[in-house]
Amino acid sequence: AQSVTQPDIHITVSEGASLELRCNYSYGATPYLFWYVQSPGQGLQLLLKYFSGDTLVQGIKGFEAEFKRSQSSFNLRKPSVHWSDAAEYFCAVASPNDYKLSFGAGTTVTVRA
Amino acid sequence: GAVVSQHPSWVICKSGTSVKIECRSLDFQATTMFWYRQFPKQSLMLMATSNEGSKATYEQGVEKDKFLINHASLTLSTLTVTSAHPEDSSFYICSARVALADSPLHFGNGTRLTVT
Question: Is the pLDDT of residue B62 over 90?
């Protein structure tokens, strides 16, 4: 069975500072990997995804993530956060066969001025 | 870009009544739709997968008689919460895609259900 672990429940970062959100997954083969962002009471917005190929993936809003097979990780990074980046971030894994997403518990990002 | 619309965005119902949530793909034919449930400050949990024209496949622990899913057309799936109780209060989110390799998954904006 596939699963996702996001070790950090809550991260506080200063505006303009860098951000890294950790994600570890468990899956038997190479999965599809995703990062989503959710604002309070809203749906999900896809930041980026990895299917295959280049292990460094560029997404929207200046985010990037790196797939490291040896570490079963797919960490999300942003060099300089903006106050609007405050939200809940979810890492997800899916089997290429059925596209059923399993989500991590989420990381809440707070941005301080 | 592709859009998935959920309706209503929020609903309040009395305990014991049923409520229907619609999920529509507005500009593509969604052969597969997924229904997720999210409790406050928690992650999303997959409830069921529905493929157009066939019965939904429910995840373990999800009561299929309580959460009725219908996917009668390529653009519409409905989730009906039957005989709702306060513990069914949650945020329900659908997602949809075309069942082709690497086709993207599109999420609706969710429905906040409150059962009083």
Answer: yes
